[in-house]
Design goal:
Four copies of one chain form a homotetramer.
Chain A (H helix, E strand, L loop, with lengths): L1 E4 L5 H13 L3 E6 L4 E6 L17 E5 L19 E3 L2 E3 L5 E5 L6 H14 L3 E3 L17 H14 L3 E4 L6 H7 L2 E4 L7 H10 L3 E4 L6 H13 L5 E5 L17 H8 L4 E3 L1 H5 L2 H14 L3 E5 L17 H17 L5
Helix pairs in contact in A: 2-3, 2-10, 5-6, 9-10
């Protein structure tokens, strides 16, 4: 880290800071500038915060990080891209993986109909929520355990592996009985107890970015899972919160090239939640693939205007099928397949 | 809600939307404007979302809410302010309640020293973290159960009731054995499983705003606790995430008058997390009281430069004592006491 | 607009609001709901704000807009897309228009070298700054009039039309002597005096979105130019300000499908300013084209590490040539050409 | 600045970066860490950007600033607070200066009535807009030159000095004939041509923060005026744009203690624009004073529900008088007067 001293810091103060840097196990390197003195603290600072508290000293202006604070998620540790394999589906390889299905599992008919239609259109994973994090306590909260069973039935019928959300540590075991991929939702990105538990489960994890989560924080949440012994982490950009209100969130596709530079983990994009409006899903799905995403998460519902959740952003199965055929062309244009 | 149709919507389409509105239990009220037709859906929309899915119809432009979606948290339901009472301390009354203590409980000496000093300076509740939500898996994660016991000891010695964070549903019972107030941290504001469990505990809850939580969403999270049968909810503004980087977060004091208009629940302010820097704590603490806050949450550490977490934003006990004497003057100037 | 009254509004108050609505030239339409009364004010509210001031009445909770406030920019007024033609280049047609060149014009050699190289790679317009809006007064402020002459020389040599920024009303005439397209920079998006002056010039205008400009405000700025008699407006998304700091701004590609729905004006994307880093330019350029952009603005410099401005985000000419060949494939995959 | 190299940078690359640092006039200081090499570039980097372009070198990860980029605005250059004196009113001294009046000058009667009433209540400067920056071209654009004359008449009648906005360089001379303080509005914070012109006028300048302007950029805009030879700059916080929509903007009071640390310039707060709603003005005005603001800007209108602009956020004169008497108590509680 770099410790910037206030202008006018005395020699005694500089020595005192250097002493503390040494005491914390780093080697101090003093550079006296024209206006300020800065002290470089040499050592492996990744994952450490002890130097930051030096900011409380009267003579210190700021303490700045030099290294990214994550290790196992970093491309410096592992150069080649991670490919997560789920029931024969590779996520992070040449083929763009499309996960599609309803926001919520609402009934047997609904989930079976959607599953067979998204499979026919070329989706490789079935998505669907059984436990639903809802902003209002009065909104539909999901079919819970019953929903998990319906997803399992849809999997048996179609052969599609299933991704579904788990919301609390105690439910990880239950959900892992039915799900091939455990989804951590945006609202739980810093639910560290839950991250530790899904790490133990060893099941592949789809880790959605929170609506105000910086890319650095996101990779630190991934680091909780990786350092807990589970290497199968898939990242999913789903929109951040900004001042713009014509879209529900601002899908941040910039995250794709940034992540490709910083990490070896595969990156998905969710244009349904990211925009909140079905008319914008296709454009952003195409853009995600063109930017280098390894896959997509798309909401499909047979009758969106009657959906119990997220109707405005769901595609009808026919539109989804059209989307897939257009997406294939974009994938080929960037040397991927679909 | 107000359903705005696209310009050029046909009579048949208008009738179809009206039919669906009726089917969902609302009474449609069609207004044909010069440019567009809008349909008012009359009925109690609070806590309901079914009308929103109509946005998926081709002829619908947008669906806009008219009513706030929360009920029990609303001042329309309960006019008089809620006062939460904890061991003789009233939160939400005339007296501004100050909760102070270290970010993390680090040792017996540390917590006992801080507790006696903040009590002497006039604090009425002791804060301190035993379970710590840390961005990095490599950072100090708290003393956990041992930390709870040290807080209990500090309470016995000083008489100060204790507020401490609980991070997962399974731990609510354990934490409630020691804590007088259960804190839900910013990162768990939409951890709905946790909200349901603290509702059941009946223990007063300090509900911190998330870093990207709108005021409406925040009150819906409070609604989870209230509708779960626990009326003792205290809100705490702690800074939102914006583009500005000179402060760690942007403490949003505007939330105070907005909340005073919308809800009867007491509102606290946390200038330590809100600014992330000890030099800004006093100004923002004074501003919070002047804006009408019912209390403050302030981090105090005997040796901040050696703190295991949040050193940059912690006050030394002497500074805290000065802060309290200056705050008292501001409190009196707005007809409160401290 | 929809005027939402506070709960408990009396009949007398409702009548008074209705009277004022009528006095402002709208026809009031009262809907008495279970909890609140709302009054629809029927009439053409576009471009009007008089009803908004009713929010100051004690009995009024909020006043909500129903219609978009712009007219000439709207697709409701003009269904078919606008194509802006500049020296034989069509912007908004099937072919994706690429405008490339240095951030600042620095010297004759630099601008001529870049111009011939971007032309060879397939760019159709030369960009380059002569008047530069710089955050710091101590930074290089551009070659000004001398820079305009160099751009004109580059145009003569290559045949490429020129887009360059104009920063103040008094300079519009001078810049229009040399530029084929007048650029309004992000910092001047709400410099209304400047907008009025470029409207009068009748020269095509490239209107960049401001870093905190909502899409609605952006289209209202376009409306200043359109209603001033200049129909040749090209919009350019160049990144908005969010909390994320790994990119200089957050390029908001969601704006493309949103704008395609709301307006008939062509939409460009600037991945150089949007990301602030050359390594991210290609991914975001591809994504922009895939999302439906009508063109791109790309910074190219022969020796970026020595650039007087925006070096970190500039491409070397060789990389730009590679980018163009990859972009062509993406353009074809979405039924465009390049 | 600190130049962080990519891990694995070779000795040859390190030497090359050091050579370039030297060529730009800085002295390079190489620190080889365990994971990365960083190079400190020692020299006065304030106001310079040349080193930043080194980020384009393949071996460079990032270039980080150490010093604040402004000079004349800095407290390191001038320790004692600047007091701006206008017609006997001191801004930046012990007394909190309150500038009040209508958003727009609408008529002779309106401005004279407001002027006499705000004076009676204790305001020390009259505010009022003659040239109005309006988001929509169809909205009332101000009385322009006629409005300036009415402000001058109000000044003659009440003795209050006048602050009013100037929107374009060509109008600076005209506005300066009538105004005691030139206001630069939020939308013109980076209208550098305008900043240079008001610098030349030598008239005191009220510089409002833009809605997405970082504090560092704001002080660089002040630096344009200071370095242009005009030392009389007053800063005014007026709300930034965030995701929260219950207030029109998010008034960022954190800026007050941050600015008091970084600069010697006086700081005002505008709670009317900051919140956009009259019911929130008083709480935020009190909070601003408690946080250490040197003054306030408050909108007052005799009949806000009929105002031609900003009606929702304007106070009636009676409410303003009450606000003043309550504010006085807060001012005294923080050792100021009003």
């Amino acid at each position: 880290m770099i410790i910037v001293l206030k202008s006018g810091a005395s020699d005694r103060e500089i020595d005192e800071v250097a002493r503390r840097v040494r005491a914390l196990g780093y080697s101090p390197h003093v550079i006296r500038g024209e206006v300020r003195t800065v002290i470089g603290a040499v050592g492996d600072e990744r994952g450490k915060e002890d130097l930051l508290s030096l900011e409380n000293l009267e003579c210190v202006e700021t303490v700045q990080r030099i290294l990214q604070p994550f290790k196992l998620a970093s491309r410096e540790i592992k150069r080649e891209p991670t490919v997560v394999r789920v029931n024969g589906v590779a996520i992070g390889g040449t083929k763009v993986a499309v996960m599609a299905g309803p926001c919520s599992v609402e009934s047997r008919e609904q989930v079976l109909e959607v599953a067979s239609k998204v499979k026919a259109a070329g989706a490789s994973v079935l998505r669907g929520g059984a436990f639903k994090p809802r902003t209002s306590p009065y909104a539909f909260q999901g079919l819970e355990a019953e929903g998990l069973k319906l997803l399992a039935e849809a999997k048996r019928e179609t052969g599609l592996p299933v991704v579904t959300e788990v919301m609390e540590p105690e439910k990880v075991e239950l959900v892992a009985e039915y799900a091939d991929i455990l989804q951590i939702g945006a609202r739980n990105i810093q639910n560290f107890s839950l991250l530790k538990r899904v790490a133990e489960s060893r099941r592949p994890v789809l880790l959605k970015r929170g609506m105000a989560t910086s890319i650095q924080e996101w990779l630190l949440s991934a680091e909780y899972i990786l350092s807990g012994g589970n290497p199968n982490v898939i990242l999913c950009e789903r929109g951040i919160r900004t001042f713009e209100t014509t879209t529900r969130f601002t899908l941040d596709l910039n995250a794709i090239p940034v992540l490709k530079r910083l990490t070896h983990l595969p990156v998905l994009v969710d244009p349904s939640h990211g925009t909140g409006h079905w008319e914008y899903v296709e454009a952003m799905a195409r853009a995600g693939v063109a930017a280098g995403a390894d896959g997509l998460l798309v909401e499909v519902h047979p009758r969106p205007a009657e959906a119990l959740s997220d109707g405005p952003q769901s595609l009808k199965p026919e539109r989804f099928a059209e989307l897939m055929s257009r997406l294939r062309r974009v994938a080929l244009a960037v040397d991927r397949d679909l």
